[in-house]
Write a structure and sequence with these properties.
The complex is a heterotetramer, with 2 copies of chain A (280 residues) and 2 copies of chain B (262 residues). Chain A is of the alpha/beta class and 280 residues long. Chain A has 10 helices and 14 strands. In chain A, the strands form 3 sheets. Chain A has an 8-stranded parallel β-barrel, surrounded by 6 helices. A 4-stranded antiparallel sheet of chain A has the order 5-6-12-11, with no helix packed on it. A two-stranded antiparallel ribbon of chain A has the order 1-2. In chain A, α4 (102-113) packs parallel to α5, α5 packs parallel to α6 (170-179) and α7 (218-231) packs parallel to α8. The radius of gyration of chain A is 17 Å and the shape is globular. Chain B is an alpha/beta fold. Chain B is built from 6 helices and 16 strands. The longest helix of chain B is centred in the last third of the chain and has 14 residues, at 201-214. Classes of the chains: A alpha/beta (280), B alpha/beta (262). Chains in contact: A-B, A-C, B-D, C-D. The A-B interface holds A 19-22, 26-27, 29-30, 42, 50-51, 53-59, 61-64, 66, 68, 71, 214-216, 243, 263, 265-270 and B 1-4, 42, 47-52, 91, 93, 224-239, 243-244. Bound molecules: flavin-adenine dinucleotide (2 copies), flavin mononucleotide (2 copies) and FE2/S2 (inorganic) cluster (FES) (2 copies). One flavin mononucleotide sits between chains C (17-20, 42-43, 66, 68, 70, 96, 124, 162, 189-190, 213-214, 217, 239-242, 261-264) and D (227, 233, 235).
Chain lengths: 280, 262, 280, 262
């Protein structure tokens, strides 16, 4: 089951998805993190972000919506608070980053380049692009290309670009990332969704819309992975609605070289480790 | 340290309409839980309902290795939970969160529970025995049908007052209103009193206001929608003076003065 | 509960979604069709289409995938076989059409213009565009505009344009339809998805990808309706994952003027009528 | 005309490992069903599993107002179905589809059932009584554990032959193989014989080939994934000489010569 994913050596092809596992520590009481193929940390940004107001989550049929808003302490505090724990792990650690501008991505990458524990950088291009008025970077092949290039220039570790499914043709974005030098692609981030509270007449989430995750989106994620795997040569990491090793197998059939387990971790603290065990 | 385990259902009963108590076998949680903590319960092996549901620990008996939760049927998840049967196993995470603090320098505690908010207060009342001499419990509800049995609190040697919004049982009025006479009467409206409350947000806010007015500490058990229950997803935050805090980890119990009410 | 939707008078705002109710007759044994707000027929095309090979459907968490491939007898046979039954109904009948070229849409509309029973035309722009290489018409604002204009020119009945959610920005498409004269918008058609069969290692559907429908997509549909309702002035018809009247209410809160019930009809033959009853 | 109704579960029992029979109270369906028809069963009120599951009517007793279905647990839906309890109600649609045709000019019928494919054949065997003098039933299965009880067919006065792929019970071999000796022996390999079959696709195909070879009519009960079950969604088609035909409406029973095998 061991794989070499774009230069990252993993005991098995199962990672945890960014934002669903904190910085790893949160799950250490419940499961043996060293049984994972790799750990991907929650998105870290240059400056601290307090995140969106509550309510931030709600349940939907076989899924959930979230609008966490990338709450995180910023890269400086992250280095101090999260890295010491991550260093103790025996598995590769992949740091997920997001910037509000192209420059911020590069700056984050430069800072992380100095950290030995960082075995890969996952670039979250699904956050809103402040400069171009809130539409996610990941919807525009040009922006994805620019971000990828600038991160590639800044770090020697493999660069993984994580794509949003909320686009007309995800293969265009994937190809742009590949052409810009991405070492791998993660697909997918959450699907844009919304739900209303009948009691209040208002959206259930503070920001109205949010990101749909969980089994409900698995067919969408499998489709995206399949489309991308046929369009690019770099490895694809599949994520979206994986609860069991059987679910993970669907992604491998679709062409994924590795998978990430996200929302399932909330349902079962051992979900990711069980998926890995089930692939043997 | 919380754990995830399969706990056998020892008993499940409907105490009143739509109002259930489940008794679970859990040596670990009954031994380690403190008042105000909660368990996060997986409802189904299916993908819908997907997320766990949080419930306060209502009662914990380490000798008998059991814990109890009290819940109202409000949606799909609690409905399915109410249909579970004795000997089935429930996948639970616990004990989670930061419970009530029990100071050693108080003479009087007032516990205010609105509706199902009473759930963590019995555990608390028992924990207060021998630590705070006078324990008052105010149990409020919409109406008689929703009023929770006070027997267990009587047994815990509390002075219990019940009230309903419509006066159909106990006194007529909102639970926080009945704190004032107690506070006045006891004349210890100062550092010797502490308020504990759990219930709907408006009730908690009213308690916080009274606490502020009388300058006495209050600890409130807050609710917010949860995904992980273990501090990983950042889903369950509420606004506090030190920024967004996680109900599942930093709470559910917060100091009243910490909370920023919308 | 009666509404006037872009000129179509309906007793209640609940219709059945195209392709999930056949031509109406199929459900007549089970429920009183006249209790619906309106009936939308399965997409009819100019020439007969035999549809895609089996397997055409599979179940997914809280949803299903389909690749029916617009199987239908073609407009001529449709007029002979379906219209006589539809004429007997006391509720408005909306005919859903799709062409393989822009011209075919106009031609279909012209033919239907002669049929008195037709109270509205729903234009399905989600089918693959044969001329421009298989991408759905509905992904391109220009094509949607052209199709809408040509259909508008051909018929006097209200023209409803049904949009696909598989686009980066659905408001652009909705605005294009509005500007071209559309009287209303239906959102959404199915979400592109895929699922693999672990036993065979092949996709569960004959064509690989298919359309995801059912409760799983409700948050996506509600989001699209909300986005569109803020972008256009014409009424929006919400569809996607409605099982109960509570689900329908979410769409009204999102800004829909009417709703359609699709996949739910398969689960409960009375689903649509129950949704209507529950709104009273 | 089929209906949608809630049918009470009168009995549910595990006949063999993972193999269940449910008896349902349904005056209407028991009165109106013909052999080869099916019911479409709603498994859960939740959204997952979402779609109904189709099951052949195994037995229908209008006097007792009951129908029976026989099923194997193969996935989530059948697993949940196997956990239903007596007195619960099942939301079912039926009787659906076009069942077996029973010609009046035949002297011999051979019924071939592979695995759970036996389900519609008992109903058929009973319906053939008095109409076709000699009824042979070949019951095939992977192994002994999966072989279905032949008692009911004995009671229906059929001549029953059992076989398993591995020979662990009955004869060793595939069900269609055992048609040949019967056909040869009876020497009525002509218009006087009819074949009925239900089971996995390769078995049905083998039956169709034998039927073609011997020029005798065969009726096959086909399976395809279904959404509506009532002819509305076009989801359940199979390829036939007259184009795609709906298993739920034009079938599940088709004439063997009509089917185009991939
Ligand atoms: C720390 C904590 C302790 C709690 N203790 C108890 C208790 O002891 N007894 C009791 O009856 N209830 C308690 N609740 C509320 C209980 O969790 C909800 O009533 C329950 O989750 C509702 O689930 P449902 O599926 O029936 O409702 P639905 O409304 O169908 O649930 C939909 C979603 O909303 C969430 N949700 C709904 N209501 C609440 C709520 N009030 N708080 C948080 N999430 C909610 C559910 O978890 C689920 O994700 C507690 C909540 C929290 C946060
Ligand atoms: C006309 C007809 C009659 C049938 N009669 C019987 C019977 O009498 N006894 C019996 O045990 N089985 C019968 N089947 C098969 C039965 O419907 C499936 O075994 C059952 O739907 C599986 O559901 P699941 O959720 O357990 O399996 P899963 O594999 O989890 O189901 C996933 C999806 O696939 C569909 N599916 C899975 N297997 C089949 C199949 N073989 N045919 C059609 N759809 C399938 C399900 O309906 C569901 O939508 C019949 C099928 C048809 C079409
Ligand atoms: C609560 C929550 C928080 C998330 N936070 C992030 C994040 O910070 N960065 C990121 O790239 N993806 C984030 N995601 C997306 C997940 O990593 C994953 O791509 C998505 O949830 C789909 O996978 P799943 O269905 O297995 O959860 C988050 C998802 C959830 C549910
Ligand atoms: C089996 C099936 C067939 C469909 N056929 C059509 C069609 O012919 N034309 C069309 O415009 N939409 C078609 N749709 C899409 C539905 O009308 C609807 O937009 C979609 O299913 C979302 O709604 P739902 O979740 O309520 O099903 C079909 C959907 C299903 C499930
Ligand atoms: S519920 Fe996930 S952080 Fe609190
Ligand atoms: S299952 Fe819908 S047409 Fe047969």
């Amino acid at each position: 089951m061991a794989i070499n994913l774009a230069g990252i050596e993993m005991k098995n092809p199962v990672m945890v998805a960014s934002g669903t596992y904190g910085y790893g520590k949160e799950f250490a009481d419940y499961t043996d993190l060293n049984k994972l193929g790799a750990l991907v940390t929650k998105t870290v940004t240059l400056k601290a972000r307090e995140g969106n107001p509550p309510p931030r989550i709600c349940e939907t049929p076989s899924g959930m919506l979230n609008t966490i808003g990338l709450q995180n302490p910023g890269i400086e505090k992250f280095l101090k608070e999260a890295i010491p724990f991550l260093k103790k792990l025996k598995i590769p650690v992949i740091i997920n980053i997001a910037g509000e501008t192209i420059e911020e991505f590069a700056e984050l990458a430069k800072i992380l380049e100095k950290e030995k524990v960082v075995k890969g950088i996952e670039v979250n291009v699904s956050c809103p692009n402040v400069k171009s008025g809130g539409m996610a970077f990941g919807c525009d092949p040009d922006l994805v290309s620019k971000i990828t290039k600038s991160v590639k220039k800044a770090v020697s570790a493999p660069v993984i670009v994580k794509l949003t499914p909320n686009v007309t043709d995800i293969t265009l974005i994937a190809k742009a990332a590949e052409a810009a030098g991405a070492d791998a692609i993660t697909a997918i981030n959450t699907v844009l969704g919304m739900s209303f509270d009948l009691k209040t007449g208002k959206p259930k989430l503070s920001r109205g819309v949010g990101g749909l995750s969980g089994p409900a989106i698995r067919p969408i994620a499998v489709r995206c992975v399949w489309q991308i795997a046929q369009a690019v040569k770099i490895p694809v990491i599949g994520v979206g609605g994986i609860m069991t090793s059987d679910d993970a197998k669907e992604f491998f059939l679709a062409g994924a070289k590795a998978v990430q387990v996200g929302t399932a971790n909330f349902v079962d603290t051992e979900a990711a480790v069980k998926v890995a065990a089930g692939l043997k | 340290m919380p754990i995830q385990e399969k706990a056998k259902i020892l008993d499940i009963r409907e105490l009143a309409e739509n109002h259930f108590k489940i008794t679970l076998l859990s040596k670990y949680i009954s031994t380690n839980a403190t008042a105000g903590q909660f368990v996060n319960v997986r409802i189904s092996e299916e993908t819908s309902p997907l997320l766990r549901r949080p419930f306060s620990i209502y009662n914990s008996e380490p000798q008998k290795e059991l814990i109890e939760i009290l819940f109202d049927v409000v949606g799909e998840g609690t409905k399915m939970l109410s249909l579970k049967e004795v000997n089935e196993e429930l996948d639970i995470l616990g004990p989670l969160g930061t419970g009530f603090e029990i100071p050693t320098d108080k003479k009087m505690a007032i516990l205010v529970g609105g509706g199902i908010g009473i759930a963590p207060l019995l555990f608390l009342a028992r924990a207060l025995k021998g630590k705070i001499p006078a324990v008052y419990v105010i149990i409020g509800a919409r109406d008689k049908k929703h009023l929770i049995d006070k027997k267990e609190f009587d047994a815990a040697k509390c002075q219990v007052l019940t009230c309903t919004d419509d006066g159909s049982a106990g006194k007529k009025g909102l639970a926080p209103d009945f704190m004032l006479p107690i506070l006045e009467e006891s004349k210890s409206i100062d550092k010797e009193t502490i308020i504990y409350a759990c219930g709907p947000k408006p009730m908690l806010k009213a308690c916080a206001e009274i606490a502020e007015q009388y300058k006495i500490p209050a600890q409130l058990s807050m609710e917010e929608k949860m995904a992980c229950g273990i501090g990983a997803c950042m889903g369950c935050v509420i606004k506090t003076k030190s920024g967004y805090q996680k109900v599942c980890e930093d709470g559910p119990v917060f100091k009243a003065e910490e909370i920023i009410w919308e």
